[in-house]
Amino acid sequence: MSFLFGGSGKSKEQEAADEDKNLRTSLGFDPNQVTNVANIISTPGGLDISKLHPLAGVEKGVEYLDLEDEQLSTLQGSQGLIPSRGWTDDLCYGTGAVYLTALGLGGSYGFIEGVKNIPPNAPGKLQLNTILNHITRRGPFLGNNAGVLALVYNLVNSSIDSVRGKHDSAGSVVAGALSGAIFKCSKGLKPMGYASGTMALAAAGWCGLKSVLL
């Protein structure tokens, strides 16, 4: 009586069978009988991606893998140890590398300091707690300060390079001196002078190291 109500006259079993048949025809194999997908994929011509759902659009190729190489920075002298696309790369790489290095050095110093300051005859938990306290005090302190210095240095250095139209050792040393002065500007003229001179020497040393490695 299904024809009286506009039905197709097919049972659910028949519809499921037709759907399986269409799926086998489109894929070239019966997915219900597959026990190991690797066998289908490894077989030449076993799985044609063009037979997948048309909305996937895979017949046009996987577009997100087709990436164009971004142009590197054309600023004179801007390419160093790592290829750079501009000041944003220098900012990220430089700040991140300095922060992680200082964090590791500070944590190592804190570990040594914690071992030396373990109370005599202290239980194991107290010994571990003493070491961890020194590591967490020295590591983040040195890492955060070095990261801020590197951040300011890269911003100042990039600004100088953009104004001068080139990147060289002189600009880096000046950027180091200005960064140190800015970092300690709230402590007075004497700390500013010390920090400025230290950062200028550090920048000069880094430029010398780059010239040797390059």
Automatic annotation (TrEMBL):
**Organism for this UniProt entry:** Eremothecium sinecaudum
Location within or outside the cell: Mitochondrion inner membrane
Q: Quick one: where is this thing mainly located? A: mitochondrion
What job does this protein perform?
Essential component of the TIM23 complex, a complex that mediates the translocation of transit peptide-containing proteins across the mitochondrial inner membrane.
What is the protein name for this chain? Mitochondrial import inner membrane translocase subunit TIM23
> What UniProt keywords apply to this chain's record, in alphabetical order?
Membrane, Mitochondrion, Mitochondrion inner membrane, Protein transport, Translocation, Transmembrane, Transmembrane helix, Transport
- Example GO BP: protein import into mitochondrial matrix
InterPro entries in alphabetical order: Tim23, Tim23-like
